[in-house]
Every structure is written in structure tokens, then in C-alpha cells.
Specification:
Layout (H helix, E strand, L loop, with lengths): L2 H6 L2 H9 L5 H14 L1 H4 L2 E4 L2 H4 L13 E5 L27 H8 L3 E6 L33 H8 L5 E6 L5 H7 L2 E4 L20 E6 L2 H11 L17 H4 L9 E4 L11 H16 L3 E4 L6 H27 L10 H12 L2 H21 L5 E5 L15 H13 L2 H6 L2 H10 L6 H6 L3 E8 L5 E7 L5 H12 L18
Helix pairs in contact: 9-19, 12-13, 12-14, 13-15
Length: 500
């Protein structure tokens, strides 16, 4: 098996070759190591790599993905005994004392965890450029970001290091990298996949565990393996009686009613090429017998942004405090990045009343969307408002860094609210990616499909959001598009052709 042949295979195809003894597990693992090591200097996707003698001890030989290499995300996807730093110097010495339930299910499925992928510090940003490890680059164009926070995983899959990689999504962190890297990225329904042990909820229920893949069938079959309630979980998804892998081979029973919106929820600009791609896909759906209708955003986008960011501020503050408490020494300013420290400071000023009020809005938005879906099966939007930023383009300026230092020294974070600087920060942080947060707040499943292009000609995703518990409908829609001319070929990516 050549390196490029390995890179072109999805997990299902690779398993077929393994079962038919056309290739051995050792050969497959060697190809994965060669690509991870050979492409590291160019992409910087992987931050920790396990040794060959370690990895085969963990894999179940009889799982449906037995022998398939896998990369975990360096945030939330703990593997016992391995480093888990969340991209932060504050956790540079952290080793997991137990494996996450998500990881256990990945192991039971037969995957072989090769290591962990790069993330922005604490997975807080939509670009993967942590100071601790440096930026991950997009295999389609090394001058731009693969997105975040699952940017390392996206770059690894899009370059053929592994066919599937771990990801999680608290505000778009599966869907945004999938969009920028031409992959399939499904954020499951709240409570569909495990988040423990040690916690019953991540980001107040906004964050769910999932994967990034090249094909719909890989996404469906992996979801079959990682789905199911966890005893300590705070939320439970509606039960699905069936197999997602069977669903994608089952035709839709009726025409779909699809609501389409390409306007930014927070009033910003949307790339013209992305808008056109959405409408071209909508027209194709109509040719296939479905009904697509333009609608206004069913929920106040500014309220979504504020509610999301209030949680974001509070969770950052709580994370910094928790790290200090667990290690017996408070986190110091120099141990985290300036933006992280600012979010921590702002989070300390959020009142209990404000936090609860914003969380109540999540429930109100969920009710609004449930009512909306009485009329529409799917909600169709862009994933992002524009193509990926250049590497370093969104880094804070020296002036902004000085402002953060000033706020930190004087404990003047309340002044940011008085001068509307927090509202500006919310708008600026979500301007490129305003479409994804709604599904995190409402708990709905949403998927990014590689069926669009941005103005620079790079891949762009179109997002479909379904009612809670209806991943099956998203996967059926994805399978339909995968057979259409709209599907972007991941193998156009130059890294897929490299022999390493």
C-alpha cells in the first residue's frame, strides 16, 4: 500500500482491506506514522504522538474499526497516562489519570489512538494558533487557518494522516474546521454522546463530542459506536431506535421542507460566493423534489451571541479557577494567553443573575426552534460568513495586548462593559462564524457538508440543522448530497497526493 493510497481511504474502506488480509495492521499503522511525521513540519496538526509499543495494547481487535488509526483531540478526550494540555502552558505537565468515556468507546470500536491533535488554548477560538504549540495550517492552503477549535484534527484528516479524528463542538468547533477543510462535521444532539467521567455537562450543555471524517458513511458508523447515555450525564438525547449506518442507505420517505437563510445573524457581511453556493444547493434540492424556502432567522441572532458569550466568559473563569484549585497553586497571568486571561477577568464580573438569565434564553430559543420545525424539516445556512483567515490575521495586536495588561493590573474589567467594549468583542469574535452557535444553545444536531466554495476558491461548508434527536435526517440529507455534483472532492487537496 502506497502512502497516497492509504490517505485516499476512508475508515470503512480501510477496514475492508484489513479484514480481507490485503494489508496488515502493522502496515497501516506504519503508514499513519509516516504521514504524521512526514507532514508535521508543514501542518503542525499533531502535538503528541504515542510510541508504537503503546498503541496496540488499547485497541479492541474485534471492533468494527479494528486496526484503523485515530487521533484524539487535545481537549476533553483524555487517554489514561497520556498528556492532555488543552493547548495551555497552565496544563503543560498534565497527564490523564483516567480515560474519557468518549475515548473508551473509541477504543471499544477498535480504533488505534495515535496521539492528540492541536487546539487553541482551552478550545476558545475558531483558529488553531496556540502559543504553546504554534499554528496549525490548512492542507488546502498553508497560508490560512484550518479553523478551530478542532483545527488539528481537521488538518490531520484532510491531509490523510488518519481517516477519522476526534473533535468536539461548543460553538462550532466541529463544523467550522469541517467547512474550511472540506470535511464532514456533525455536531450531535445534546446528550447523544458522552462527556464524562468527572462532569455531567460541558459548557452548560453547549459542547458535544464527535468526529471529523471524509465521508458520510464514516460519520454514521462512528456515531453508532459513540452514541448512548452515560450514567452521570446531565442531558439525554431522544432515543434513536436503529443504526445510523443503515439510515444513510435508506431513501427519504417524503419530500423535505427546508428553510434557507444566508443573512448573518449578527448583521455582518457574508461572502457572495458562499451565499451563491447555498442557493445553488437549495435549487438542486428543489430539482430533487424537495421544497426550499427563504426565511428570516427564527431567533434573535444578537441575543444568541450575547447568551453564548456570557457562558463563554463564565466557563473560562471557572476553568482557570479549577486548574489552580486542582494543582494547589493559582494560575498566573503568564501561564495563559492574553485573550484567555481577559476572558477570565470578564467572566469574574458576570453576575449569577445575568448568567441564569442568559441560560434561560437558551431554553426560550430551543422552544422557538421546536416551533419553527413544525413547519420545516431542516434549517439551511452557511457554516461561516467568509473563508478562512490568514495565519496570524486574528492574533491580538500589541495595542490590544497592552489594554489587556492594563485591565488586568487595575482589575478594571467592569469598565469594558461601561464603554460597550464587550459588545464590540462579541461582534468581532463571531463576525466570521455567526451561524453555528444557535444549535449549541438549543441542543439541536447540525452538520457541515463540503458542498460550497468561498471567494478564494477554498472549500466551504453548508450547514443543515435538524430538530433535536434527528441526526438520522441530517445523515440522509448528507448521503444524498454526497452523490451529487455539489460534493467537493477532498482528493483535490494537494497533500492527499504526497508520498511520505
Amino acid at each position: 500500500m502506497k502512502s497516497s493510497e492509504y490517505a485516499h481511504m476512508d475508515a470503512v474502506e480501510l477496514v475492508t482491506h484489513l479484514r480481507e488480509n490485503e494489508v496488515t495492521v502493522n502496515e497501516v499503522v506504519d503508514k499513519a506514522y509516516a504521514r504524521i511525521n512526514g507532514l508535521h513540519a508543514a501542518l503542525n496538526a499533531v502535538v503528541s504522538l504515542r510510541q508504537p509499543h503503546q498503541i496496540r495494547e488499547d485497541a479492541e481487535q474485534n471492533g468494527p474499526f479494528a486496526g484503523v488509526p485515530f487521533l484524539l483531540k487535545d481537549m476533553g478526550q483524555a487517554l489514561k497516562g497520556e498528556r492532555l494540555t488543552s493547548g495551555s502552558y497552565a496544563l503543560r505537565n498534565n497527564r490523564s489519570i483516567t480515560s474519557a468515556e468518549y475515548t473508551n468507546r473509541i477504543l471499544r470500536a477498535g480504533f488505534i489512538p495515535m496521539g492528540h491533535t492541536n487546539v487553541p488554548e482551552f478550545s476558545l477560538l475558531a483558529v488553531t494558533e496556540p502559543m504553546m504549540y504554534g499554528p496549525t495550517k490548512n492542507p488546502w492552503d498553508l497560508t490560512v487557518t484550518p479553523g478551530g477549535s478542532s483545527g488539528g484534527s481537521a488538518a490531520a484528516v484532510a491531509s490523510g494522516m488518519v481517516p477519522v479524528a476526534g473533535a468536539n463542538d461548543g460553538g462550532g468547533s466541529i463544523r467550522i474546521p469541517a467547512s474550511y477543510c472540506g470535511l464532514v462535521g456533525l455536531k450531535p444532539t445534546r446528550g447523544r454522546t458522552p462527556v464524562g467521567p468527572g462532569t455531567g455537562r460541558n459548557w452548560q450543555g453547549a459542547s458535544q463530542e464527535g468526529v471529523l471524517t471524509k465521508t458520510v458513511r464514516d460519520t454514521a458508523l462512528v456515531l453508532d459506536q459513540i452514541s448512548g447515555p452515560e450514567e452521570t450525564q446531565a442531558f439525554r438525547a431522544p432515543e434513536f431506535n436503529g443504526r445510523y449506518h443503515d439510515v444513510i442507505r435508506t431513501p427519504l420517505k417524503r419530500a423535505l421542507r427546508i428553510a434557507v437563510c444566508t443573512d448573518s445573524p449578527i448583521g455582518g457581511q457574508v461572502d457572495t460566493t458562499i451565499r451563491e453556493s447555498v442557493w445553488n444547493a437549495a435549487k438542486w434540492l428543489e430539482k430533487e423534489g424537495h421544497h426550499a424556502e427563504e426565511v428570516s432567522l427564527p431567533v434573535d441572532g444578537h441575543a444568541v451571541a450575547k447568551s453564548y458569550m456570557t457562558m463563554y466568559f463564565g466557563e473560562t473563569a471557572a476553568t482557570i479557577t479549577k486548574i489552580g484549585r486542582e494543582r494547589g497553586q493559582a494560575v498566573q497571568r503568564q501561564e495563559v494567553e492574553p485573550v484567555t486571561w481577559l476572558l477570565h477577568l470578564i467572566g469574574q464580573t458576570v453576575t449569577a443573575e445575568e448568567f441564569v438569565t442568559r441560560l434561560r434564553f437558551w431554553d426560550e430559543a430551543a422552544i422557538e426552534m421546536a416551533n419553527f420545525h413544525q413547519s420545516y424539516d431542516l434549517f439551511m445556512t452557511p457554516v461561516t460568513a467568509m473563508g478562512p483567515a490568514k495565519i496570524g490575521e486574528l492574533a491580538i495586536s500589541k495595542k490590544e495586548e497592552k489594554l489587556i495588561e492594563w485591565v488586568s493590573r487595575l482589575r478594571a474589567q467592569k469598565l469594558l462593559t461601561r464603554f460597550d467594549l464587550i459588545d464590540e468583542m462579541i461582534h468581532d469574535s463571531l463576525e466570521r462564524t455567526p451561524f453555528t452557535q444557535l444549535a449549541n444553545l438549543t441542543g439541536q444536531p447540525a452538520i457541515s457538508l463540503p458542498i460550497a466554495r468561498s471567494e478564494g476558491g477554498l472549500p466551504a461548508g453548508i450547514q443543515f440543522t435538524a430538530p433535536r434527536g434527528r441526526e438520522d435526517l441530517l445523515l440522509q440529507t448528507a448521503a444524498m448530497f454526497e452523490q451529487s455534483e455539489h460534493w467537493q472532492d477532498i482528493y483535490e487537496n494537494p497533500f492527499m497526493r504526497l508520498q511520505v
